[in-house]
Specification:
This protein has about 325 residues and is α/β, with parallel strands linked by helices. It has 14 helices and ten strands. The chain folds into two domains: about 180 residues, Periplasmic binding protein-like II (D-Maltodextrin-Binding Protein, domain 2); about 90 residues, Periplasmic binding protein-like II (D-Maltodextrin-Binding Protein, domain 2, 3-Layer(aba) Sandwich).
Length: about 325
């Protein structure tokens, strides 16, 4: 009798283990993963929120949590330490992280062109990039801003050293609207849209039209450890993300609704305007080796990188 009870207990225990799976999860249950955004949710992330709302990640077997960065969040370090699986990084930050010994890999571009630009008041003296010479240009204080100003002025035949740069932090909208500076660095899809909605006339000088290659600004990034240790997870997240952005291209109004439903604090008109200008470049696709090589050389020239970058190591599936 005791033998029968013991046997029954063993069978039930084994059945329980089989039902739970080796990692304690139900068989077929989505695998959990976290994605840290590059900034607070906005129109550029519409494809991600569309994919979340429409179950695309779940279709790929992933329970994805998207979260904005906190004040102290250092996404590259979180990725490198294995505390999160994915992050959206500015391409320059990806290169800098690799220089610092954090083995990160870009797995998909979210936008196909730079978002960085110089924004100049239409009623001001800066009618072309070289006319930043001798005029006040607001910069955040980040090295990437200096690179944008240098690249644009030089490409237009001017002297970057002759630009009067004023550190304004992240206040390009307020500073330009109040006429405190003649031009400022900013993102044409964000600050540019906000200023025009305020009725401020602008001249927009996109950096890829003045010296910089047409590099993809925002990159879906993971760690080498995740890429090699769980390639199925990476493939699944990339596939679902691409599907979400494909949906956004086909039905931007519905995708905007998904973004706003998840983030009701956002202003609909502002995000609609941003999405409208982003749509032509808002689609993941394969990396272009020639473009990435040109971007790495541009970053090196302008001091954003200190040594040549191994593009094949920094990006997955480079064509």
């Amino acid at each position: 009798m005791r033998w029968t009870v013991a046997l029954l207990a063993t069978v039930l225990a084994l059945a329980g283990l089989a039902g739970c799976g080796g990692d304690g999860a139900e068989p077929g249950a989505p695998k959990g993963a976290t994605l840290v955004l590059d900034f607070v949710p906005n129109a550029v992330h519409s494809g991600i929120y569309a994919a979340l709302a429409r179950g695309y990640y779940e279709d790929e077997g992933v329970d994805l949590k998207a979260q904005p960065p906190g004040e102290s969040t250092d996404a590259p370090k979180l990725l490198g330490a294995g505390k999160v699986e994915f992050a959206i990084l500015d391409i320059h930050d990806l290169g800098i992280a690799r220089e610092r010994g954090i083995d990160l890999v870009g797995v998909a571009p979210l936008v196909q062109r730079p978002l960085a630009a110089v924004l100049a008041r239409a009623d001001g003296p800066v009618r072309r990039p070289r006319e930043m010479e001798g005029n006040e240009v607001g910069v955040t204080g980040l090295p990437s801003d200096e690179a944008v100003v240098d690249s644009e002025v030089e490409a237009d035949g001017g002297d970057p050293a002759a630009v009067d740069r004023v550190t304004i932090g992240f206040n390009a909208v307020g500073s330009l609207a109040a006429g405190k500076v003649d031009a400022a660095t900013g993102f044409w899809n964000a600050e540019g849209v906000a200023l025009r909605r305020r009725g401020v006339g602008l001249r927009v000088f996109k950096v890829n039209r003045f010296g910089a290659p047409p590099y993809p600004e925002l990159i879906l990034t993971t760690s080498r450890q995740t890429l090699e240790g769980d390639p199925e997870l990476v493939d699944a997240v990339v596939a679902a993300t691409e599907r979400g952005y494909g949906f956004t291209e086909k039905d931007p109004t519905a995708a905007l609704g998904d973004l706003l439903s998840a983030n009701p604090e956002l202003e609909r008109a502002e995000q609609r305007a941003q999405l409208r200008v982003l749509l032509p470049i808002l689609h993941p696709g394969p990396f272009d080796r020639k473009v990435l090589d040109a971007w790495a050389a541009w970053d090196l020239k302008h001091g954003l990188l200190e040594r040549p970058l191994d593009v094949e190591q920094a990006f997955d599936q480079v064509g």
